[in-house]
């Protein structure tokens, strides 16, 4: 269109055919010519069986490298102590187990990836094809043709003719699944057994490993001082631990017991507990409306620390599991599968809150041996 063409009108100059268009009017091509496909260039493996054999051995070697990486991963996982350290230039000291696990997984992935790329570039068909459009529902003949195309593809990829590739690829993929299964099963750790059933609230642990029942006072965390029932007003929330835990234990054992024995204490009007078996149990295990529940969420063990006074709900901030304090902390929302375990409390002669009985069930996340 030139500068003197009125707006809305088109230049009627035909489009030259040497520009790859079919001539149209108004300067707009009627359609484009099919440019066709470039001539196919044969690879060495297409015409030379020896080159194809070399490519096959290369691919098999890469898949073999993947298998070696997987074996290295398994050996490192089962035989190398995670605390054993080694020096790596540019990094410094690091766990030998982590180093070997990373190298093994990297080799396993690299071998499969490079082997697949090499296979596609040297032995699989590399000719470009054109597929014409067709109705969404293919005819029966087309479907049968598709099945035959798949079979022909398997034949043309030489998978059936190259058993070495088929065997090493199967070995690489099969072995590569083992680290995933090992990591999934082994990294879950041992079953908790009674580790979550016994807490510092159970009493004193003797030299023989048994626990002697005793009534412990509820101590504020972290002040480590006892709390009286009169200190707990309606709407208030206290984070408490068993008496003696912070002074009698040390190190990892202390941290472990703090994690299991942490408790939330709050006070409700006794009339606000629901008239259900759970609600009556919550009231009976408390003292004048004061109740105490495990602070460890029964979903994945996050600390439950948010209390809504108006609704009497406890909320876990990690995944929004919500527990109803008026109904023995039953789950009313979220992924938690069980109520929070309740601690049975009372008062001693001086008016201090004490634990009359430990939790009826294990604290923390649910697990398949929990009932036992």
Describe the structure.
With 372 residues, the protein is of the alpha+beta class. It has two domains: 129 residues; 158 residues, 3-layer Sandwich (Rieske Iron-sulfur Protein), CATH 2.102.10.10. The chain contains eight helices and 16 strands. The strands form five sheets. Strands 7-8-9-10-15-16 form a six-stranded antiparallel barrel. Strands 11-12-13-14 form a four-stranded antiparallel beta sheet, with no helix packed on it. A hairpin with a 5-residue loop joins strand 13 and strand 14. Helix 2 packs antiparallel against helix 3, helix 2 packs parallel to helix 5 and helix 3 packs antiparallel against helix 5. The longest helix is centred in the N-terminal third of the chain and has 31 residues. The chain starts with 20 loop residues before the first strand and ends in a 15-residue tail after the last strand. The relative contact order is 0.08. The N terminus is likely disordered. Keywords: 2Fe-2S, Cell membrane, Disulfide bond, Electron transport, Iron, Iron-sulfur, Membrane, Metal-binding, Oxidoreductase, Respiratory chain, Transmembrane, Transmembrane helix, Transport. It is found in: Cell membrane. Belongs to the Rieske iron-sulfur protein family. It is a multi-pass membrane protein.
